Amino acid sequence: MRDIPVGNGSLLVNFDEKYQIRDVYFPHVGQENHTEGFPFRFGVWADGEFSWIYNDDWKRDLSYLPETLVTNVVLTNEKLGLQIVSNDTVASHENVFLRRVRIKNTLDAERDARVFLHHDFRISENKIGDTAFYDPENFALLHYKKDRYFLINTEPHFDAFTTGRKDFRDQEGTWRDAEDGALAAAAITEGSVDSTVQLNFKIEPHGSREFFYWIAAGKSHAEVSELNTLVKTRKPELYLKYTQNYWRAWVNKNDTDFADLSPEIIELYKRSLLIIRTQIDNDGAILAANDWDVTARATDHYSYLWTRDGALVAYALDLAGYPFLTRKFFEFCEKIVHRDGYFLQKYNADGTVASGWHASWDVWGKQQLVPIQEDETGLVVWALWEHYNNNRDIEFVRRLYRPLIVRCADFMTGFRRETMDLPKPSWNLWEDRRGIHTFTCATVVGGLRAAAKFAALFGEDERAEAYNKTADEFVCGMREHLYSERLGRFLRALEFHGDEHFEADATIDASLFGAFYFGAFSVKDEMIVKTMRAIEEKLWVKTEIGGVARFENDGYMRVSDAATGNAWFICTLWLADYRIAVAESKEDLRGALEILEWTAKNALPSGVLAEQLHPATGEPVSVSPLTWSHSTFVATVLNYLRKLAEIGANEE
Fold first, then answer.
1. Which residues contact 10 (CB under 8 A, 6 or more apart)?
2. Residue 587, number of CB atoms within 10 A of its CB
3. Rounded to the nearest 10 degrees, what angle do helices 569-582 and 590-602 cross at?
4. pTM (2 decimals)?
5. How many CB atoms lie within 10 A of CB 119?
6. Can you give the residue range of the structural domain that contains 146?
7. Strand ranges (E), 543-604
8. Mind listing the pLDDT tens digit for each residue in 354-406?
9. What CATH number is associated with residue 212?
10. How far is Cα of residue 67 from the mean position of the Cα atoms in its chain?
């Protein structure tokens, strides 16, 4: 799990729950993790005793300074008689990770204290062929391989350093050398290498000392040298203050009236916007999650753009008033869209196609398949209309009209099962089964109706009519084939098995909320009312933790048979969105407000939202932070405020 990320869209640094740096992504968010999840250790020696801050004798409080992407970490070790306060950030506009450390002596005697900072770079995601050396030009340590350079420095300048081999034969790393309180200097090492720096302090009784530490990231020695000079010239303290003020201005750029929302909800709303920003690459990719721990169980990770997640995150950001971020995302989509008008499963931050498991060939039916989950195509077009509707930037959408909007809409129009007036089978949003899914159909309807609005905007009435006609036909197909009169609710899907035969999948799934959310059906349609009632009755986690599971008997990351599945933040917030949509009075909004409060209560102390919660303990499960969790919270808060304002206006 990752408790406190800091980043600027090019350099992302993640900390775990024990305040160890675990991920360093550069030059793209989510692409090239130069640690492979291995920890950078932080240790203290005092009066002959040594302790790493990940040890159990440390009490750790991990949070952020309010309304910033600057951490506020308090580390207390009663045994050593020390307290450390750290503030970490990545400079808002330069690729520099910066840390301020204040170390306080809590005892009545003068102390001899030494701080050790360790670096376990595995540049370009492997430990082979790295070099670590002391650079006398910059009076700093450097790690490099090919065109990736990381410069490490402190102020005051570190008192000792060493480089060495790690994770090779019996050599664990230079961090072991630190444990006796002194480093044996080695000026250069190549291969599988690490490094450690040492700072020495005399601290008077109940006194404190302060130092700054930074890592500059670049593609050449000259680039990191320039960044190092910049930090020293500007002064690290002022650099930190500048970044702190920048993020406070960034998150408060819009005058949002939060009405009756609690301080906890408002705080999480702002924290969510800031965390979302750390997960967005400056070239436009919106990454699902950057938590390397998942690779241990999956041999893969979440550090990809799924256009499904990306579109829904973009929607939330547009509602919140951050269109300069979403424009980059939509431009990115125009570059990666398939020539046939759809999006593949997922992409790397540089736009290349990522790993995937959607087959292009049916080994049983001996036929070609389109390897997609079609909701990813429909949602991009739907979100782009919402972007335009909020910002009216016609010059921007004009450039995307034919290469993106028309191309995708033409695909969605043609990708249909004629005998049923439904889209052809594809993978579902959870990526675990193939068929014709209610959620997918709803997103396609939303995408086609958005495309029709764009076509009408640009005077192509025949095209608009064709898109609307297909959307209406798909709605009729959903009503006929995906709604069960016997069950009194929507089916999850029609599952196909490589031929013309299919069977109804009656599993109750939280994603059925999409049938109203993207405009296929009215929220007050009895079919929707009954479906949402079934979701609340069957998927609410009946423990003290509560929340909504993804679907009945969800096995993904399942930790207990006592509940139908783990609670997901996004699924719980979808229920809040339904309650908001049907509300006619302020009293009707109470249930939605309770879910917003539940979300704030179950966030990590830092404000980070994971993907799931343990149904018995409330501990985070799977990756954290999940960008989609934070964006759904942002969108639901804004939907709540908008409905509250509408109700207030009607009552007047």
1. 26, 27, 28, 29, 95, 281, 282
2. 9
3. 160
4. 0.97
5. 26
6. 4-250
7. 548-549, 567-568
8. 999 999 998 888 889 999 999 999 999 999 999 999 999 999 999 999 999 99
9. 2.70.98.10
10. 18
